[in-house]
Amino acid sequence: MFGNLSRNDWLLIAGFTVLVLAAPIWLAPLGAGYPAIMEKFCIFAIFAIGFNILFGLTGYLSFGHAAFLGVGSYAGVWMFKLFSMNVVLSTVFALICAGLFALIIGYISLRRSGIYFSILTLAFAQMMYNVAYSVLTPITNGETGLQLELSDPRYLDNALGASQSIGLPRTSFFGIDISGGGMPGFYFCAVILIICFYLSIRIFRSPFGMMLRAIKSNQTRMKYTGFNPKPYLLAAFVISGLYAGLAGALMVATDPLAGAERMQWTASGEVVLMTILGGVGTLVGPVIGATLIKYFENIFSAFNENILNATFDFLPEGLRHFAVEFSALFVGEGWFLTLGLVFMIVVIFLPGGIMEGIARIRALFSKKKTQDDAAEGSVVAAE
Amino acid sequence: MDTNNNVVLHVADVNKSFGGLKALTDVDLSVKEGTVHAIIGPNGAGKSTLLNVCIGRIPPDTGHVIFDGTVLDEITPHEINQLGVSRVFQTPEIFADLSLLENVMIPAFARRDGAFKFNPIRALSAEGEIREKAESHLEEVGLYAKRHTDAASLSRGDKRRLEMAMSLIQSPRLLLLDEPTAGMSRHDTNTTIDLLKTLKDRGMTKVIIEHDMHVVFSLADRISVLAQGRIIAEGTPDEVRNSPKVKEAYLGESQQ
Amino acid sequence: MDALLLQLLNGLDKGGAYALIALGLTLVFGTLGVVNFAHGALFMMGAFCAVVFDRLLNVETVTIDETQTTPWGTPMEIREPYIQSLLGDFGAFLVDYSVPISIILAIPIMLIIGVIMERGLIRHFYSRPHADQILVTFGLAIVLQEIIKHFFGANPIPQAAPDVVNGSADIGAMLGLDGIIAYPWWRLIYFVFSLLCIAAVFAFLQFTTYGMVVRAGMRDRETVGLLGIDIEKRFTVVFGIAAVVAGLAGVMYTPILPPDYHMGMDFLVLSFVVVVVGGMGSLGGAVLAGFLLGILQSFASMTEVKSIFPGIDQIIIYLVAVLILLTLPRGLMGRRGVMED
After folding, report:
1. Mutation to test the C interface, candidates A51, A293, A303, A348, most C Cβ within 10 Å
2. Is residue C310 a part of any domain in this protein?
3. Angstrom distance (rounded) from CA A139 to CA A156
C-alpha cells in the first residue's frame, strides 16, 4: 500500500512534512512564528485541501462548506462540555457529525448540477447559519457562541478524577495541553495537516480520483461508459465535508469557542478563494492559498492609522496624507476589500492560481532551455 | 456467415415524436448475435434518434428496446453499458482534460469494477493489468505514441479512433457505431474498416449507422433502410442493393 | 382574518423587493447567460444613492442668532439645510421628499454603473465557465460593499419617507372591513412602485424592438447571434436596465430598511432562491416567486406560527427552495433546456 506512489510524490510529501514541522523556524523571521497563527494556517489548509477534493476534482462549486466547519466546531465544544477535554473524543465526534450533515446535504444538493448545485449548497448553508444563530440557541448559544463553562458536567473527566484546575480547563491530548497557546497545539494541528495532505495525494492518485476528474471533464460520457456518477460525487462531497468538520474540530481544540459566524456564506467564499488563489485541482495549491490569505489577513488587519503614518513618514505632508488615506482603504477594517480585489484579479488573470503562475514561469524557462539546446545542435530523440 | 440465430437486440414497435414531428414510426428491428447490422437512410431519416433510443438517451413514446431479455428503455445509461452495450458517438465524446491512457483506462475500470467503486487509497499505478490492457488497445488504433498527451489536443479523426478504443476495451457484446468514419480520410476509413472487420472474429455484435456506402457494403451482414422514420427495406447487402424501393428513396440520390 | 390580511400586506413590500432584484438577476442570466453574484450590490448601491442625495440636500448652514441664547448661555446656533435657505419652501420640499426624488439621481448613476460593469468585467466572462462568473462577481460584490463600508461606515443609516406618508393607512377602512388594519403608507407605496417597475420592464420587453430582440435572445441566444444583430450592444443595455431596476428597488426600500453595506448580500442570497424557485431565465417566474416567498416569509413570522415552529421565519424560504428544486427541477415557470445537466 505504501510503495505505490511515485518517487516525486514521496519527495513532495517529505518536503511538505519538513516545511510544516519546521514552520516555527522559517516563519519566525516573517513574523508568523507563533502558535496561534500557525495553527490557523494548518486549520485553513486542511479546510482548503478538503474543499479542493470536491471543487478541484469534480468541478462542483459548493458555496456552503463553512456549514460543515461550523457543525464540526459545535460538535467538538459539546464533547468538551459533556464528556472530556481530550481532543480525540471531540475530533471523532465532530467528524461523525460533519460527515452525517455532508451526507444528507450532499445527497439532496447533488440531485442538481452546475449553478443549481451552487445555489442549493448556498441555501443549505444559509439555512444552517440562521438555525445556529437564532433557532437552535439551546444548542448553539446563538449570538454569543458556544463556550466552556465551569459548571459543565464533563462526565468522563470527572469520573476518571481528572485534576480540577482553577478556572476553565484546557483541551488536551492525553495530558498534553492543546488550547494553552503553546507549541503542542501547533504540532497537533501540523501532524493532522500532514496526514490530511498525504490522504489527499492518495485520493488524487487513485482510480477513484481519476473517476472524479473524468466526471469533471465529461459527465455524460461517464454515464455511457458504465459509471454512475452520483455515488462518486457524493463520496467526494462527504470527504470534503469531513475535512471541513476536522478543521472545525481543530479550531475548537485550539480555542474552545464555537460561533455561528463561521458558517456564514462569506466564510464559504473564503475557502473558495483560498483554493483558487493557490490553484484549483493542484495538490499544494490550496495549502499555499490558505496560508497566504491567513498570513496577509493577520498583517493587514493589524494596520491602523498610526502604523500607516509611520510607514509613510518619509513622504511630504500632503502626499503622506493622501497615501495614508488611500492605503487605509485596504488595511485594517479594509482587509476584505483587498480580499475581494485579489479574488477578482486571480479569477480574471490567473484562473489556475499561483500554481499555474509557477507552471507558466517554469514553461518559459524550459522553452528557453530547449531553444538553447537546439541552437547548440543537440538532437533529442523523440520517444 | 454467422449461423447463430439468437436475436440479441430487438427494437419492438418503437414510436417517437418531437413536438409534432414524427421521428420514428413503428420501427421494428432484430439484430442477431455476432452480426454487423447497418442502418442506412437519407439525412433526417431518424437514424441517430434510433440509436439514442437504444442507449437510453431518449425514451421512446411507445414500444421497447430489448437487449438480451432486458428492456433498455426502463434503465439508466450506465446500467445499459454495464449490460455490455457500448456506443461510439457521432461527435466524439471523450474526456478532453485527461490523457489518452486515462481515457482508455476509465472504461476498462467500468468493465472490471462496475458502476461504482470506492477505492480512494488504492494507487492508480498499482493497476498494472488495466494499464497494459489500455496500452495495447491504444496500439491497436495507432495512438500508443500519444498516450500521455491530453485528449483535447487530438485531431477529429484521432478522437474518433480514441473513442473506438474506449469502446473496444470494454469488449462489449453489442457495439453501436454512429457514423464511425464521418470526416475521415479515405486511408483512415480503410483502416477503420479493417479494424471493425477483425472485431467480427471476436464475436461482437455491431449496429452501425453510416453514410459511406463503401463502408456499409464491406462490413454489413444485414442492412435496414430507414426513411422518414420508417423501415422501408431490410435484407442482405445484395437484396438491399437491388431493391427498387431503396434505390428510389436513397441510393439513387446519394451514389452518383 | 385581519391578522392574515395584515401579514399578506406585510409580505407584499418585501416580495416587491425580492421580485425587482430577481427580475434583473434572471434577465441578465437569461440573455447574457451570466450568473451575477454582484447583483445584490447594485441594490445596495441604489440605496446609497438615496443616502448620498439626502446628505447633499442636508448640507447645513449655521447662523448664529445673537438675540437668543441656549440654556448654557451660549448664542443659539440655527442650523438649516443650505438648500432650504437658498430656495425657501421649495428647498424644504426637496429635503422632505429626498427619497423619491433621488430616483432621478439614481437612474443615470445606476445606468452608468451597470454599463461600466458590463463593459469592464462581465463581458469578458460570457464564454467562461459559470464557476468563474460566480467567483469574479462574488469578488466584485465584496469590493463594492467594502468601498461603501469605508465611506459610509458599518452602521445602518435611516432614511425618512416624506412627512405626508409617514403614518399608516387604514386598509381595513379602505376595503370596507370592520377592523382597523394599520399599514404604513410607505410600504403600500413600495408595493405599487414595484408593480410599476415590473410593468415598465415587461412593457419594454414586449413593445419595443429592443425588447423583442432581448426576448428572442432569452429563448435562443445562438440564433439571435446568427441573425447579425449587434447582440453585444443589446447585452450592455440589458445589464444597464437590470442595474437600474435593482438600484431603484434599493432607493425606495431605504425608508423601510435603513441601508447598510451588507444589505446587498443579504438580499442577494434570497433573490437567488427566488430566481431558482421561479425558474432560471423566467421573468414571470421571478416576479411570481418574489411575491410568493415574501408573503410566505411574512406568514411564517406570525407569532402563532412561530410558537409551533420556532424560528421558521428564518428558514422557510430555504426550505421551500430545496423542496421546489427537488420536486420541480425547473422551478415554478422555468423552461426546458435552461441550465440543465
Report:
1. A348
2. yes
3. 20
Tell whether C335 is covered by a domain.
no
Total count of domains within chain C:
1
Residue type, C102: S
DSSP string, chain B: ------EEEEEEEEEEEETTEEEEEEEEEEEETT-EEEEE-STTSSHHHHHHHHTTSS--SEEEEEETTEEGGGS-HHHHHHTTEEEE-SS----TTSBHHHHHHHHHHHHHH-S----SSS-GGG-HHHHHHHHHHHHHTT-GGGTTSBGGGS-HHHHHHHHHHHHHTT--SEEEEESTTTT--HHHHHHHHHHHHHHHTTT-EEEEE-S-HHHHHHH-SEEEEEETTEEEEEE-HHHHHH-HHHIIIIIHHH--
Indicate the residue of C132, C272, C319 with minimum beta-carbon distance to A347: C132
The answer to whether residue C143 sits within a structural domain is: yes
ipTM for the whole complex: 0.87
Beta bridge partners of A147: A257
pLDDT in tens, C59-88: 777 777 777 777 777 777 777 777 777 777
Residue C267's identity, in one-letter code, is F
Instruction: Tell how far CA A111 is from the center of its chain.
Output: 26
**Domains with residue ranges and CATH for chain B:** 1-84+173-256 (3.40.50.300), 95-171 (no CATH)
Q: Which residue has the cell 459548493?
A: A62
Residues of C in contact with A120 (CB under 8 A): 321-322, 325
At B27-80, the pLDDT tens digits run: 898 998 888 999 988 877 788 888 888 877 788 888 889 998 888 888 888 999
Tell if the CB–CB gap between C276 and A119 is shorter than 8 Å.
yes
Question: For residue C86, how many other CB atoms are within 10 A of its CB?
Answer: 11
> pTM here?
0.88
Mean pLDDT, range A333-338, rounded to an integer:
84
Q: Which domain holds residue C178?
A: 2-58+98-327
